[in-house]
Amino acid sequence: MIAILLQLIIAAIIIGLVLWLITQIPGVAPFANIVRVVAICLFVIYVIYLLYGILTGGMPPIHLK
Prior knowledge:
- The protein has one domain (2-55).
- It is elongated, with a radius of gyration of 15 Å.
- It has helices spanning 2-24, 29-55.
- By secondary structure, it is mostly helical.
- The chain has two helices and no strands.
């Protein structure tokens, strides 16, 4: 449980850094909006993936053979 919490905290820090870096680049408003939306969507997908693993007893939803 602690490992999952640490993963979420690290992922949130990384996403926050990406969003902050995008705001520091001047003059790329359309690009910044696209990157912001993609970063937030990826973070939400990652959180759903982690929560799915907790709820199903650690079984990942993607089974690679």
